[in-house]
Amino acid sequence: MQAEIIAIGSELLLGTTVDTNSAYLARQLARAGVELVRKSSVGDDTERIATMVSEALARADLVICTGGLGPTLDDVTREGVALAMERPLEFHQTLLDQIEARFTAMGRTMSPSNRRQAYVPTGARIVENPRGTAPAFIVEDDRGTVIVLPGVPYEMRYLFENAVMPYLRDERGITDAILVKTIHATGLGESVIGEMIADLMAQTNPSVGISAKQARYEIRITAHGASQAEAEAMLATTEATIRERLKQHVIGDEPLPATVARLLKEQQLTLALYETSTLAPIFRALSAVNGGTECISGVLIHPLDRAANEDAAAILSQTGAFGIVDRWRADLGLAFQVADTSDQSGLTAVSVTLVTPKGNRQVTRNYDLRQTEGWEFVATLGLDLIRRYLVGEAA
Description:
Blueprint: E1 2-8, H1 10-14, H2 20-31, E2 35-42, H3 46-57, E3 62-66, H4 77-84, E4 89-91, H5 93-105, E5 119-121, E6 125-127, E7 136-141, E8 144-149, H6 153-170, E9 177-186, H7 190-196, H8 198-202, E10 207-213, E11 216-225, H9 228-246, E12 250-252, H10 256-266, E13 271-275, H11 281-287, E14 296-301, H12 310-328, E15 332-338, E16 348-356, E17 359-367, H13 372-390
Parallel strand pairs: 1-2, 1-3, 3-8, 13-14, 13-15
Antiparallel strand pairs: 4-5, 6-7, 7-8, 9-11, 9-12, 10-11, 15-16, 16-17
């Protein structure tokens, strides 16, 4: 089965509301073995909704719509879907009674406009909504199935888990499984990684893709199997191949900052930081993960009073690392120093030093520090230096 998601609401197109519903549904459909082929958004317009639903049915067996089931005049999802399915709206007194009963239970008086929520396309299967006033519904025809859910996230999630999933399993016979595994890597460029696993990226099942951010890479494996066990086996085989090819550049199942924090805690080691930018990119990266600061003994932020050339930056980086280890009696000291850039390339040399009980490690790289993202690359460089030491990689 292939599916499409249509998120309905003009607020989604204006950017005032973030569409979290589609992300949730995508994850749930994958777990159920339903292949999602497209996600889209449309405003509160009857004709446009009808067009999008009709176009989606031409491509997919299952279309899930969210939003636009409220009582106001701009809630026109019912009308749009009815138009697409060529079925007039039909009033249901039982639905209106349920809506009114909910208002009574809340100690409120139902507005006359709520009557609109008691209409669904003729012949639709009604999905009662015990969490809100907007009933959902399912419409089937020769082209496929359209499931319409409210846009309020907690209502949508409840109805999907308690009504839609049983429908897909029990009546549509969904038994497949789609599993996704993400492997984190660093230390190589995206193009290099792409070349090393090009054959895996060319296959369709399991499929493999790469996304890059801050010199860290997420390699996603997606396996579609006739059962959970089959999909797991396909994932495991592909993951093993990727790990073998990328070797020490694979961080693991978790992002780099989380890996460093976990390894420091497991090995009961403390870390001191010396950062020469008030942005403190390394401390900020560790602070963003659970337990990331528990092993930090201290942080010294000390921008240079005057510019240093690349050689001086390397010396100052090393001196800073030794100084913070001594100051806070830390097991590890990490420092970076930024050199002066006099050419027009816009790149700045950054020297990073890690002082450890087993020796010192130093590396220098060039980054564009004119934008905030450049400092995130510095964080990646420093954290990966720590990670490689903690996993026993030779200097």
